[in-house]
Amino acid sequence: MNNITLKKLADELNMSPSTVSRALRDSHEISQETKDRVKALADKLDFQPNPHASSLRKNKSRTIAVVIPEIQNNFFSQVMNGVEEVARQKGYHVLIYLTHEDHKREEDILHLLRSGRVEGVMISVSNTTKNFEHIEACQKADLPLLFFDRVCENMEVPCVTTDDASAAFKATEHLIKSGCKNIVFLSMADSLSISCGRKTGYLKALSKYGFANKEKVIECGPDDETNRRKIQQVLQSEDRPDGIFAAVEKFAVNTYEVCRELDIKVPQHLKVISFSNLSAAALFNPPLSTIVQPAYDIGKESAAILFKIIDKKKLLSSEKRIVIPSHLVIRESTTSKQYAKPPVLFKQ
Amino acid sequence: MNNITLKKLADELNMSPSTVSRALRDSHEISQETKDRVKALADKLDFQPNPHASSLRKNKSRTIAVVIPEIQNNFFSQVMNGVEEVARQKGYHVLIYLTHEDHKREEDILHLLRSGRVEGVMISVSNTTKNFEHIEACQKADLPLLFFDRVCENMEVPCVTTDDASAAFKATEHLIKSGCKNIVFLSMADSLSISCGRKTGYLKALSKYGFANKEKVIECGPDDETNRRKIQQVLQSEDRPDGIFAAVEKFAVNTYEVCRELDIKVPQHLKVISFSNLSAAALFNPPLSTIVQPAYDIGKESAAILFKIIDKKKLLSSEKRIVIPSHLVIRESTTSKQYAKPPVLFKQ
Fold it and tell me: Cβ contacts (< 8 Å) between B49 and chain A: which residues?
């Protein structure tokens, strides 16, 4: 990299390397005149201290890690945007790690991070993560930790989430008020905190409006083809739904694809609502009603709390569990148009 | 972080720290028996070598940096996916930096990176970057560098791009063959390599089909409101276009928004095609014809080339300028339906 070392700078100035080093760190032991001379030459030669030497000395890498399931997802990319904003202001670097929803990869990543490469870790767990030993090991190693979005409820680790249960309740209630009597919930893996929260909200709304016996949860996953088959099956069943509530955007996209294929009209035959941070949802045919999560704010808030922990500031109890509300955006996919006769292609 | 140091490990084993260190690095000077004893205890105590000490010794951080304009963009998030895949296999860490299309931020980031924090940098320049001194400074400092997507043609730096000009030619040709006679190109800043390439392709197609005098380029930018105003203006002008070719997805979204507002029917009144990596483009109303860039492959290929440079392997001349083709996906927004009478709301 840059060839100018502290040693070369010292030789050029006819000073000892330790004097140069202290001058650059603005030590009170060094005179202003010397500091000025050192800094002028350092600027001129574009000298920069070796970050590894400085990290070793201070045991500080000025780096945090963000561990997320995937990046091709509007929610997580907006979170990254918020994290980066706060880290930049604080003069920190951000490492990004993708687990691709794989428990083993997540373990390997956290194992690597325990060695002190970073000063803190923000994580949203993968949907195949069923035990948390790898995260507990980080905790034992005193590595500052924070969960966001997908958390582990049982661990004493600060977390930043949205109000999944209450947002899901409102979404389900909105479907019911738009005339739906048979609502299917397309969920993620049950082990995920957000999946549980969203399911709880769905069930609570069904129960409040007298549909407790109409509960129908279909677990979808990363594979589009499998999801479409499951959705197709339920939409062609005898007891076919008139509303679909998708736990994540991907499943709403799969639903729209199936509806196009089977010529099911949204919202006339089926109403659809989904958690989604896709701004283009308004351009869908028909425009998709969404529950929009405060992704950018979750990223900013998470980074701010993580830096508090890194700086060894005491967290207020309100800062240990931060919940930032989502909001509903109602569009055509759930409006209560006249209910048309279902097309003939449904299986009897 | 982890409290187990090399020193503690050595004390526990009654060996010198240097013996323990050499045993862990599998040195031939150490007997197998000693290695086994050291490794067994290191595993038991979850010892991991200090990465900063090891980076300082080897002058290797096992980290690369990716500098991109933004992450809330399907193209760049798919690129990141490809980069991460290759880096993980190679045992490298990935730092992510966002310039938010700001030249000054880009300069600051590259200044930081020159200090040796990373072994190599991949960059897609911001659309406000008009000089390249900050990148030349990295080059002088012998920092391995690679451009992807948005490159600086005049620098001797390897780059990985798509065939912007030829893909833009095909897109424009497709509009002409679908009946368009008056095609507007919504471009990015002229200083961007990809913008030039795409404009070149657009002009070449106009010229080939006898529309050289119908050239109309509108420069759009990051602000949605400004873009919509510009698009609205041209769509309400006397010489209004019957085709729009958007250089990036964002401008196609702006176009759709304006069409909804003005009740302009796509594709009857206006045909629209755009560079875009949004899979949900198929669900738009109407489904949007797109030029899909090989984003994931650009990410993988870029990382692979960067690692070759880091490992001081000689690049073949074919590896210095890699071009991976994009492909057209034709959907309803450009099909040649019967041309309907334009709505009355157009200004005369």
Answer: 115
CA-wise closest residue to B178 among B259, B273, B248, B282: B273
pLDDT of residue A57: 62
The ipTM value here is: 0.81
Pairing of strands A159-162, A321-324: parallel
B49 to chain A, closest Cα gap in Å = 7
Q: Residue ranges of chain B with pLDDT lower than 50?
A: 1, 338-348
Please report how the helices A17-24 and A32-44 are oriented relative to each other, as an axis angle in degrees rounded to 10: 90
Alpha carbon distance B195, B150 (integer Å): 9
Kindly report the number of other CB atoms within 10 A of residue B274's CB atom: 25
Instruction: Check if CATH label 3.40.50.2300 holds for domain A164-293+329-334.
Output: yes
Fold adopted by B61-162+295-326? Rossmann fold (3.40.50)
Residues 4-63 of B with CB under 8 A from A: 46, 48-53, 55-56, 59, 61, 63
Using the predicted structure, report yes or no on whether residue A25 has a pLDDT greater than 50.
yes
* Interchain CB distance below 8 Å, B72 and A81: yes
Percent pLDDT > 70 in chain A is 93
Query: Are the beta carbons of B172 and B201 closer than 8 angstroms?
Result: yes
Q: Which residue has 């209004």 as its token pair?
A: B240
Which residues of A, range 95-124, sit inside 8 Å of B by Cβ?
95-98, 105, 112, 114-117
Q: What are the sequence ranges of the domains in chain A?
A: 6-49, 63-162+295-325, 164-293+329-334
Measured in angstroms, the CA of B48 and the nearest CA of chain A are apart by 5
CA B248 to chain centre: 12
Question: For residue A278, what are the CA distances in angstroms to A78, A273, B107?
Answer: 10, 13, 31
Q: Which long-range contacts (CB under 8 A, 24 or more apart) does B216-220 make?
A: B216/B182, B216/B183, B216/B184, B216/B185, B216/B241, B217/B184, B217/B185, B217/B187, B218/B184, B218/B185, B218/B186, B218/B187, B219/B187, B219/B188, B219/B189, B219/B190, B220/B186, B220/B187, B220/B188, B220/B247, B220/B250, B220/B251, B220/B254
Q: What is the pTM of this model?
A: 0.84
pLDDT tens-digit map of B152-166: 988 999 999 999 999
Q: Which residues of A touch B222 (CB under 8 A)?
A: none
pLDDT at site B342: 45
Residues B231-240: contacts with CB within 8 Å, 24+ apart? B231/B186, B231/B255, B231/B258, B232/B258, B232/B261, B232/B262, B234/B184, B235/B259, B235/B262, B235/B264, B235/B270, B235/B346, B236/B262, B236/B346, B236/B347, B237/B347, B238/B347, B238/B348, B239/B182, B240/B182, B240/B342, B240/B346
Same fold, A63-162+295-325 and A164-293+329-334: yes
Q: Which CATH class is domain B164-292+329-334?
A: alpha beta
The string of pLDDT tens digits covering residues B174-232 is 999 999 999 999 999 888 999 999 999 999 999 999 999 999 999 999 899 999 999 99
Taking the C-alpha atoms of residue A162 and residue A48, their distance in angstroms, rounded to an integer, is 42
